[in-house]
Amino acid sequence: MDAIYVKVARHKEDGLYLESDRNPEQLLTPTGRLLADSDNFALVYIFDSEGAFVQVHIPEEFWPDLNKSHQERTPIYLDTSSVEFADIHEELDMFLDIIQGNNNYGPEMVDAVEKHFPVPADD
Predict the structure, then answer these.
(1) Regions of the chain where pLDDT drops below 50
(2) What InterPro entries does the entry give (predicted)?
(3) Model-level pTM?
(4) Over the chain, what HEC string results?
(5) Which tens digits make up the pLDDT trace of 84-98?
(6) How distant, in Å, are the alpha carbons of 35, 51, 55, 59 from that of 41?
(7) Exposed/middle/buried for 40, CB within 10 Å: 0-12, 13-18, 19+?
(8) Domain locations in the chain?
(9) Averaged pLDDT of the chain
């Protein structure tokens, strides 16, 4: 499975752009699937590229940008507005519900996620 790594995050008027080391010629189709890589403290979004899965690794250093976009529900793009992380907010909602206090991911991963994606206090 090919892997792409996010290198820069930029907030623009129309959304969050995660810039990567990918080949811009590679066609990517979003799958709407988000995984956690607790060994490398990364969230991993899966794209399809002509029948093969491609992982896009979003390291912890970009989670504050991801959380800001998630809170505002703005679109998130990979490099250009033509490659959107479809359904990433819904996937993040499910992931954040699952990981709270779940040490199957490792306590360090849980702590990192809870640090960057704090649960809003109940009113």
Answers:
(1) none
(2) UPF0738 (IPR020908)
(3) 0.93
(4) CEEEEEEEEEEECCEEEEEECCCCCCCCEEEEEEEEECCCCEEEEEEEECCEEEEEEEEHHHHHHHHHHHHHCCCEEECEEEEECCCHHHHHHHHHHHHCCCHHHCHHHHHHHHHHCCCCCCC
(5) 999 999 999 999 999
(6) 11, 27, 14, 6
(7) exposed
(8) 2-116
(9) 94
